[in-house]
Design goal:
Number of domains: 2
Order of helices and strands: EEEHHHHEHEEEH
Largest sheet: 4 strands, mixed
Oligomer: single chain
Number of helices: 6
Distance between the termini: 28 Å
Shape: elongated
Number of strands: 7
Structural class: alpha+beta
Length: 174
């Protein structure tokens, strides 16, 4: 992770892909998030969520900007951001795949679905594909235990899936 504030660019490397966000864009997103959510410590999670949604992750410059606005140490901001799985401190793929690894999904074939996802994408949990298309992540319960095994792709939920369905599901995404 390299912050090059002298040239106005924040660059974060992941695998072979690079995400570059200008400091002015980060500042604009932070200002919009604060305007929408408020500027108190109680507004921290909504602010970080807005930033994450707008940029795809929370870059180092955003932590500096939010720290300044909320008068909160960067370390505390990073602790909050790294606690919530919905937030990311590094660039994610265009599509986030979440696999439920809870017991109800596991006992109805979840392990086989997980293996099919890993084999198809050539990724481990937490990794992003070199082309920046996919990020694969395990998560605890997604709240739809009755239709396990379950994965989500972005906001789409797929239940009762089998390993044979994995390729068809992934082909739906550009």
């Amino acid at each position: 992770m390299t912050a090059m504030s002298a040239v106005g660019i924040v660059e974060v490397q992941t695998d072979q892909r690079s995400a570059t966000v200008s400091e002015s864009r980060v500042r604009e997103v932070v200002e919009a998030a604060v305007a929408k959510c408020g500027a108190t410590r109680e507004d921290l999670v909504p602010i970080l969520t807005e930033i994450n949604h707008a940029l795809g992750y929370i870059p180092p410059e955003a932590f500096k900007e939010v720290s300044h606005v909320l008068h909160t140490p960067i370390g505390q901001l990073f602790s909050v951001a790294s606690f919530y799985q919905m937030l990311s401190t590094k660039p994610r793929g265009r599509h986030l795949i979440q696999f439920c690894e809870s017991a109800p999904c596991h006992v109805v074939g979840g392990r086989e679905v997980w293996t099919a996802l890993q084999d198809t994408l050539k990724l481990e949990s937490g990794e992003t594909s070199a082309d920046g298309k996919w990020t694969l992540r395990t998560t605890s319960c997604l709240g739809v235990c009755a239709v396990g095994p379950v994965i989500t792709v972005d906001e789409d939920i797929y239940g009762n899936i089998t390993p044979q369905q994995v390729n068809g599901i992934l082909e739906r995404y550009e």
